Amino acid sequence: MKVSLHWLRRFVDFDLTATELAEKLTMRGFESEVVSDFDALENLVVGEVLTAEKHPDADKLKLCSVSDGSETFSVVCGAPNVDAGQKIVFAKVGAVLPGDFKIGKSKIRGVESFGMICSERELGISEEHDGIMVLDESHKAGTPIKEVLGPLFNAIDIEVTPDKAFALSHRGIAREVATIVGSKLKAPINSVKLNPKSKDVISVELDKKGGCTRYIAGTIKGVKVGPSPKWLAEYLKSVGQKSINNLVDISNFMLLEIGHPTHVFDLQKLAKPAIKVSWAKKGEKFDALDEETYELSADHMIITDTKNTVALAGIIGGIDSSVTDSTTEVLIESAYFDPVVIRKGSKKLNLLSEASRRFERGTDPNAALEAFNMIVQLMQEVAGGALESVITDECSMSLDNTSIDLSFEKLLKYAGQEIPSKDIESILRGLHIDAKKTKTGLNCSIPTFRTDLKAETDLIEEVFRCYGYNNIKSSFNYSSIMQYANDEESTISSLKHHLSSLGFHQSYNNSLEDVEEVKLFGKDAVSVMNPSSERMNTLRTTLHSGLLKNLDYNYRNGSANTLIYEYGTIFEGKTDKLKDIIQKSSLSCLVHGDVFSKNVHFDSIPASFAFLKGVASNIFEDKRLGIKVEYSEQSHHYCNPYFLIIDGKKQVIGGLGIIKDSLLKQLDIAYKHEVVVLDIDPEIFTDYGSYSTKVEDIVSFPIMQRDLNFKMDSSIQVGDVVKTMKSVNQSILQNVIPVDIYQSKNDMSSKDVLFSLNFQSPKKTLEDNDVNSIITEIITIVAKKFNAKLRDN
Amino acid sequence: MSLDKTIKGLKTSFSKELSKSKTSQDLENFRIKYLGRNGQLASLFEEFNKLPAPEKPRFGKELNILKNQLTNQYQNALGSKSEDSTSSNIDFSLPGYNLPDGNIHPLEQITSEIKSIFQSIGFSVAYGPEIDDDYHNFEALNVPKHHPARDMQDTFFINPNAVLRTHTSNVQIHLMENQDPPLRHICCGRVFRNEAVSYKSFCLFNQVEGLVINETSSFAEMKGTLEYFVQEMFGKDTKMRFRPSYFPFTEPSAEVDIWNSKLNQWMEILGCGMVNPNVLSNVGYDTEKYQGFAFGMGIERIAMIKYGIKDIRLFYQNDKRFLEQF
């Protein structure tokens, strides 16, 4: 909300620049930024345009000579309205405009320019940027701009948090400023007794179901629509608003003055001078002031003239009953609407207005009457009308202050230190809260404009923030609080570091993807009802999709070798019901290209299926986890082949596969080698405990190694042969490793496989005799089962 | 003793002959003669085996010393002769193996750093669901259905009653529902906001939030905890300030800024406050007895400040040229 210092001074005297005020308010909980602080702007003066001629080299530019009272400068200006004789805002070389815009000497289309003639937008005054700002002729060239524009246009922008409804006006902010500088709040519009001219009574009927619990109405006749007086236009201008006409301006002014929205109907356009508050019919069409037609629903509160809908309560007026240039009689509404009703209504139509913003945050029911009185007075003053009817005030709500007990003990317990009660009382007084001493603390009477103060802790916050958060001393002695700090993901964290040291990059991919792409991965996906874009409307069902995008991106950017992994949540759901949605942590690796590229030392080592299988066994068969894994081939939606990784308890703990070309083509992934993925179920790390190590005795007897070379059919899986060999003896045959495979080009139907067998006994040094019988048995079984012949080499 | 003499003789002839062996072929012949399987040293050991038992300990020791001496002499000679060997053609100027260089993602690094700072002062780490019901994400946290505070967090809906969590505070509710005070936890993970993607905002980000509930934890303790964190994270001399703010789930609420001396401005890094009693009573805690504080911060924001990253999207692009810098 833009707040003008000029306007604030209607309510409170203070001696702070915009920058100082912004800082002070920020530290009070009103985050503020300076919009324009003319006191801080150097090298900005009133300039006089002596000549304005066409730029020799550009049709739309003008070449001006500008005087600062003592010197004349040549300035190039693009504004269509610049003309000789004007007094303008001249930013000299060296000036810094709002937004850190530095003015230097420049060359524009070959002509040197020494400074700039400013528009209102460049000065932070308004959004006006079609032309330069023209000043009153009476200003003398050379006068510093802070003297000319400062008093009117120094302004800050405050981000008012949703709880602080009371601060959505200049009076609201001025109350805060008054407590900061310790001065009194002024009342610029004195409430005088309003005397109606007639005995007419406007009938107002509230709905029994609530929604509107106070409605004040009255009529004014004899108004004359015309331009606003200067003071009124200037206040609006000081916050960047244009003056439209006196009636509209009064309404806008009142909103920013005290923050209570009012509405003005053209009385002659109402069916009857009567108001009935009720609820819209479902599907009812409503033509609003913004020239849009809205379809209402049954929970929209409406204002009717007993016949037609004339306003959408608290949100926007109707166009048919709005004031125009020919309006002479008006009906004024000042009401209290229920925040939830307004919030729901405005959300449903996605229609936010200045009025709805205030009503949905909670307005002051007492301000309704205040606003009504003020607006009548202003109309009489500015638009020449007079109050006609008796003021109707239908009210079914309490207008009294509420009360909250503040206990000193609680305050102490919350703060962790003593705050002097003298300070507490003075803080509360500054906030217009009457506090009476009780046995245990204070009984506080909360003014109705503080709709945010509902509980004791709300008051504690008021005390803290006015006392100053930075005045509360920190007191935490962390070494005295020892506690066992647990992190169930610490083993996953070790795994991540392990993968990274193996050469993998860790990826973080978007969880939201394009539904069309997600579908290709063949799982039941969960979609978002209100996506921000179609490309991000569905949750990922696998980490592969993101990893493939990373492969594609890096490949297209010159890096074909990819070793990458991600740990994150994936989602599946048969329906969008929470109970049907499975969300689980997942870890996947993807490799492509080479682990080692070809170099002077050796040929390339591809990041192949075998590489990733090695990574899998490196992880799972880590002695500390001690999982014995098996691979079981299974058909897969987009991998071929795909192997489930199964542990000794027959649980699936992962998977390993090669992504099908068809998927890569559909997704338009750039690749040239096989793309291999490894999935690891992170739960195994919790299931298997956190790496409990049991040390085995080291066997000191020597290993006896034997080689066996078999010729076998090409189609035989070497893994099966290894398994068979191992099954022959489990006591001293420690390991069987295929060390070489030879495939003759002349005979593609068979291959030679060299196996290395390690024997070791924990009890004694093995002799040939101990091993020979086992070797013989292996040869026999392998020959029989695989029709393999032992080769003697 | 003849064995004594033999040992001495062997030592002398070994040294003499070794000094005469020039080429690698000489050395190999020499090795076979003295140190080979049937060499002179081996035959000495054979003789040793025939000795009577009482003499064995002394000679055993001497023979072992001899064996070590001779082997060392031979190895030294072999080393000094290496300019003759064919292996001297190694080009030591060649680059070493280009070992693959992996990385931990910068967001993970920052998260780990934050986790370990808080773990060092007794905070456990908790995790929870990314899709949650409206109750755990909003209502239990004192954000009723039709409250303007809902606008503070643009929300992705899965169905009218389930959302992609907008903060990890839902984990705090789950924690408190399942556990009685005292609590001292941080929660971390992904959160989602329905915001337009640009250099400064993404549709999701990572958060770390903390929660401390017991009978005494005060605003002063919250300040002390977060000062400790900021100093550990950004350096002992970091200037910081607490400024009043508003969050529905805390009262009083504050935001913490740290001073950026490069940009000459305050930068907001986290939000915090005393847990609103409404939140505590929603999970069935006795609000007369228990109180505490909560805080939360965005990892991306901290990573951007710490590493000088200007575009948040870089974290999710996974460009190797970016990742390799961490």
Could you describe the 3D structure shown?
With 793 residues, chain A is α+β, with helices and mostly antiparallel strands. Chain A has 6 domains: 2-36 and 157-181, Phenylalanyl-tRNA Synthetase, Chain B, domain 1 (2-Layer Sandwich), CATH 3.30.56; 38-153, OB fold (Dihydrolipoamide Acetyltransferase, E2P) (Beta Barrel); 203-395, Phenylalanyl-trna Synthetase, Chain B, domain 3 (Phenylalanyl-tRNA Synthetase, Chain B, domain 3), CATH 3.50.40; 402-471, Phenylalanyl-tRNA Synthetase, Chain B, domain 1, CATH 3.30.56; 490-687, BirA Bifunctional Protein, domain 2 (2-Layer Sandwich); 704-791, 2-Layer Sandwich (Alpha-Beta Plaits), CATH 3.30.70. Chain A is built from 21 helices and 43 strands. In chain A, the strands form 12 sheets. Chain A has a 7-stranded mixed β-sheet. In chain A, strands 3, 4, 5, 6, 11 and 12 form a 6-stranded antiparallel β-sheet that branches. In chain A, helix 1 (5-11) crosses helix 5, helix 12 (421-430) packs across helix 13 (456-467) and helix 20 (718-728) packs across helix 21 (768-786). The longest helix of chain A has 19 residues, at 768-786. The mean pLDDT of chain A is 92. By secondary structure, chain B is of the alpha+beta class. Chain B has 2 domains: 2-89; 106-323, Bira Bifunctional Protein, Domain 2 (BirA Bifunctional Protein, domain 2), CATH 3.30.930.10. In chain B, a hairpin with a 2-residue loop joins strand 3 and strand 4 (162-164). Chain B has helices spanning 2-20, 24-34, 40-50, 56-80, 106-119, 134-137, 169-178, 219-234, 277-282, 299-307, 314-317, 320-323; strands at 124-126, 131-133, 157-159, 162-164, 183-192, 204-214, 240-247, 250-260, 265-275, 291-298. Chain B has a 7-stranded mixed β-sheet, sandwiched between helices. Chain B has a 3-stranded antiparallel β-sheet with strand order 2-4-3. In chain B, helix 1 (2-20) packs antiparallel against helix 2 and helix 1 packs antiparallel against helix 3. The interface between A and B is large, with 95 and 89 residues.
